[in-house]
Every structure is written in structure tokens, then in C-alpha cells.
Amino acid sequence: MFGKVLLIGLSLAVVIVLLHAIGSLAWGLHIQRKILLKTQNGGRLRFGQALNFLLQTASVMMLMMVVETVLWAFLYLLVDAENSFPDAIHFSLQSFTTVGFGDIMPKNDWRLLGGIEAINGVLIIGWTTAAFYAVVSQIMSHTQALKSRLPGQG
């Protein structure tokens, strides 16, 4: 059973990494294109535009992680590790974020999935943080408010 659980868990982890890669790259390219359109011909982003891009980016990244935890929850239901969707999503969010309250546990044979999801979650959350930082850096390099405050940048 251990090998089966490991194979199923790692398979979903790989699928989630691929989905996150596609989503991150697609969103990063989308934001980059929007910034370039706004700043072509020497223009700079205004504070409101920059804030809008950051809020959109945070929302998209959070949505991606919610979808990923829901995929884990569906797996718990599919393999009969949890009895209900609310319990499955609760356990999935605990595992993905490594909070681990311990109030809901999958059935004995499937407990290893929680650990695999936690490793997957740490990777995805770290990746999301790095991607968000990249967007913030890109926005800051094109923001009018920042440029106007720098010495010699009238």
C-alpha cells in the first residue's frame, strides 16, 4: 500500500507543479505585456496602475493555489481517504499550508498523502512568493512614483 500511496501522491504533485508552471508563466507573460504596453514610448506606470497589477497578480496566484488544494481534496475523496468534501478541503488546506491542526486525518492507509501534499505546498508557496516578487520588481522598475522620488529623476 505504501508504494501505491507514494505513486499516487507524487503523480498529483507533479501534475500540480506543471499546472503551477503553466499558470505562473502565462500570468507573468501577461503582466509583462501589459506593463510594456503601458510604458512604451518612455511612459511610466502610475501608482493606481501598479497597485491594480499587484492586486490582480495576488488574486490570480491565490486562485491557482486554491485550485491546487481542491485537486488534492478531490484525490482524498477519490481514494476514499476522507468522507466528505468539507473534510477533504479542510485537511487539504491544512496540509498544503503546513498548518496541520490535526483535527481531521485521512484514513490510516492514506496519511502519507498529507505529507506529500505538504512538501508540494511548500514548493508551490515558495515559488508563488518568488513569482510575486518578480512581478513587484518589474512593476517597481516602471513606476512613476518611485522614479520621481529618486535623486536626479525629475
Written overview of the protein:
The protein is an all-alpha fold. The chain has one domain. The protein has 5 helices and no strands. It is elongated, with a radius of gyration of 20 Å. The model has no long low-confidence stretch (mean pLDDT 89). One of its GO terms (biological process) is monoatomic ion transmembrane transport. The chain crosses the membrane at residues 6-29, 50-78, 118-140. Keywords: Ion channel, Ion transport, Membrane, Transmembrane, Transmembrane helix, Transport.
In short:
This protein is mostly helical and about 150 residues long. The protein has helices at about 1-40, 45-80, 85-95, 110-140, 145-150.
Topology, pairings included?
Layout: H1 2-39, H2 47-78, H3 85-96, H4 112-140, H5 144-149
